[in-house]
Model the fold of this input.
Amino acid sequence: MTSEEGFVTTTTASTTADAGALDLPLVPHWISGAATNGSSDRAADVYDPATGKRTKTVALASPQDVDAAVAAAKAAFPAWRDTSLARRTTILFKFRQLLDERKGELAEIITSEHGKVVSDALGEVSRGQEVVELACGINHLVKGAFTENASTKIDVYSIRQPLGVVSIISPFNFPAMVPMWFFPVAIAAGNTVVLKPSEKDPSAANFIARLWKDAGLPDGVFNVLHGDKVAVDGLLTHPDVASVSFVGSTPIAKYVYETGTAHGKRVQALGGAKNHMLVLPDADLDLAADAAVNAGFGSAGERCMAVSALVAVDSVADELIAKIKERVATLRTGDGRRGCDMGPLVTGAHRDKVTGYVDAGVTEGAELVIDGREVVPDAQDDEAAADGFWLGPTLFDKVGTDMSIYTDEIFGPVLSVVRVESYAEGLDLINANKYGNGVAIFTNDGGAARKFRNEVQVGMIGINVPVPVPVAYFSFGGWKQSLFGDTHAHGVEGVHFFTRGKVVTERWLDPSHGGLNLGFPQND
Ligand code: NAD
Done:
């Protein structure tokens, strides 16, 4: 990344990040097609989690910066909404091509600030790219319906139009993919965007903004506003923001939903999760063990679709745990750029919070089968091994549903085995949970799987698939405390979220139809 490309600038003299950060590059906002440091004197530190070192600071927007970003998006809206679908999709195809060509660079940026291994970061970009590809077909997705002669000589048709300035507020765990759940469809449908990424890993958003510019997107259609609660509150209450697409933890999702809707906005707010994986006695236990390890420890458990509660029917629990132990013993935790399986956690504070849950699990009486606190990381050097935000894969057995490692979303590499006697007990436990994002069942019994699909109260279900993130042309979203609002991300629901319907009833002058008639029309 270079300052010429607009991703980072080095003028950090007036940040409030502590004095040691003053020489670090600053990640600026991206407004109206150009990098800007904004008017605020506040900034936050950005770390390389695999070394524990601060590498950058990121601007934190002031209310004036929020106004500037929204004004830029508002100014760009009239021309963009009237740009033909043909022209819009040409730009989308170009963006898709640039993203594909440069996804390796983007993945490295993600790894350097988030910590996930590069192959996983590449996977994240590819899943986001699927939504860009969906949006390349926007002309089909916004096609209206037409009925000729609905009443005598009267035609009726429906059209869908963009909302205006839409905002996207995203979490740290997928700095590229989660924004891409929304902005390709929003932009393709004719809206202009203000994206407020997580302040923990902000640079991916600027890289993407630059790609949009290179693809020919007019300035102001895609803006990046960095910040914290000040920026979020500014967007939630701004009279010129039409909608909010939020992804993050449940308490903030609820706050965003309530505040945004109270200010007249359309809001979809995706929250936290506690995803269960139910293993029935007839399951292929090797497949189930592979799946539990992949879904429990991939991205160090920092996925909203990670499996954190493994619900095992008691008769197979011992064998399943033995198979998981064998597999975890082969994993390498370390720097995501060194070909490891699992990287560090995103910040020191988050690592300490997750470690606190491991301590609590022990105190509360769960059986600690694998202790990730003892991990020896594959780091760049001894200093990085000491200072990186490490925690290895951790496995608990005999976890009770009243223990904090079960009740809370941990968002780290901690897998809890909860033993049950039967399918029915497992289902009841899953349905009693306050979250309903993802769930998986492992079984070779089609009838049991079908019954589960029908009875479970969760938005996204995997049958012998541990992380059932839907493909882009379906919609992503959970139930219960995992989603506030009623519209899921991307797919047809995403198109509906970013457009408003109009229905036109039309009659062209016909002398035979003239005359007064004060009643509702009757067909001849
Ligand atoms: P977070 O809630 O801390 O932050 C999300 C966004 O909200 C960020 O942009 C942040 O700057 C902003 N924010 C934080 N505190 C705020 C406040 N007090 N007021 C206003 N805005 C605030 O979440 P995170 O730690 O970045 O991400 C992890 C969480 O996101 C987990 O709970 C995870 O389950 C969830 N998540 C959910 C999904 C899903 O699809 N349901 C997907 C990814 C992540």
Observations:
- Confidence is low (pLDDT under 50) at residues 11-21.
- Residues 169-174, 178, 196, 198-199, 228-229, 232, 247-249, 252, 270-273, 304, 409, 411, 437, 478, 482 surround nicotinamide-adenine-dinucleotide (CB under 6 Å).
